Amino acid sequence: MSESLLGLSRAALADRLEAWGYKAVHAKPVWQHAHRDGRSDMDAIPGLPAGLAARVQADIPVVWPTIARETRSSDGFTRKFLLTLADGRQVETVLMRYDGRVTTCVSTQAGCAMGCVFCATGQMGFARHLTTAEIVGQVLTVSKFRGAEVPKFRNIVLMGMGEPLHNYDAVMAAAEILADTAGFGLSPRRITLSTVGVAPGIRRLAAERRAISLAVSLHSATQEGRLALLPPAARAWPLDELMDACREYSAVLDRHIFFEWTLIAGENDQPADADALGRLLSTQRAHVNLIPLNPTDGYTGAPTAPKTARAFQDVLATYGIPSTVRQRRGIDIASGCGQLAAPLVTTR
Ligand code: SAH
Ligand code: SF4
After folding, report:
1. 226-262 residues labelled b (16+ CB within 10 A) or e (exposed)
2. Can you tell me the distance from the alpha carbon of 293 to that of 289, in angstroms, rounded to the nearest whole number?
3. What's the CATH code of the domain at 241?
4. 262 alpha carbon to ligand 1 midpoint, in Å?
5. Tens-digit pLDDT profile for residues 314-331
6. Is 337 a catalytic residue?
7. Residue of 116, 119, 246, 337 marked catalytic
8. What's the confidence (pLDDT) of residue 332?
9. What pLDDT is recorded for position 345?
């Protein structure tokens, strides 16, 4: 796949221009043309030296994902985009509104190798990692070009298709690009990365002092329970190791972690489960996000009723652990957590 300007930071573009024999000062207008204005026609930029626009177009062309389908939820806001990438692979990206804030849910892989039993992305298998340009391209495509409002409070959650810490370098490069104030200009804390529990990746976030927010998917407070729900991830990174990595992260960065818990009726939603979670998190700086199970074809469980979810929260509160039940959004268009999928076939 050819390289794209969408995958380059402003500094990397300046280096590239210098390597081509141009002044670094031309990097900003070229970069902003794509990353701020969402354009790909480099010859429309005034004042560039002869040949530069053509060189950019030849060597690092801006290729936007194309929107194969857009679906809108009856909730009045949630929109799901099926995007086609340059090689024909497809991924889904979701725009939604929670508490008046607009959040973009971004995919980091086509498919996912982690095979969590209740997740549609896991059920479809792994196709490939997304490039930095494809991650950035999703955000800019759904946020700017489709008439979507570009609101004041924007958030990005890396909670779409894929496991972001399995594609670490491309994801971090994208986060840096999206935080550049000359472009999309998102505060790093408004980018939340959700991981199935890749312990070495969590340690690396701490070592590199990454300013983005972290969410860790737990779903069970025991190793056996995690083996049943998230088999490959639990085998690779046992619960003890994961909890150690989380403590290290919070200590080094002085940050709390969001722990995600998909509430499945009768499976992990009883007071005893909440008790076990309260004990497990007693040595963590934690906020718990409870997500009533969303339906997927490959899993038969049912979501927890609101009353049971509240009882679960009450138990957590006795441990001093704050929690939120995620509002259900976009279930009618299969855009909820764990519902994103796309065919593994190439269309071209
Ligand atoms: N791979 C990352 C991020 C993408 S999944 C991760 O697993 O954390 C985003 C969240 O949706 C995770 O917490 C995941 O466990 C949850 N999820 C997956 N399938 C779900 C389902 N059917 N219903 C509710 N939440 C689900
Ligand atoms: Fe992958 Fe996350 Fe789905 Fe698990 S829940 S299969 S890690 S996308």
Report:
1. bbebbebbbebbbbebbbebbebbbeeeebebbbbbb
2. 12
3. 3.20.20.70
4. 7
5. 999 999 999 999 877 788
6. yes
7. 337
8. 85
9. 47
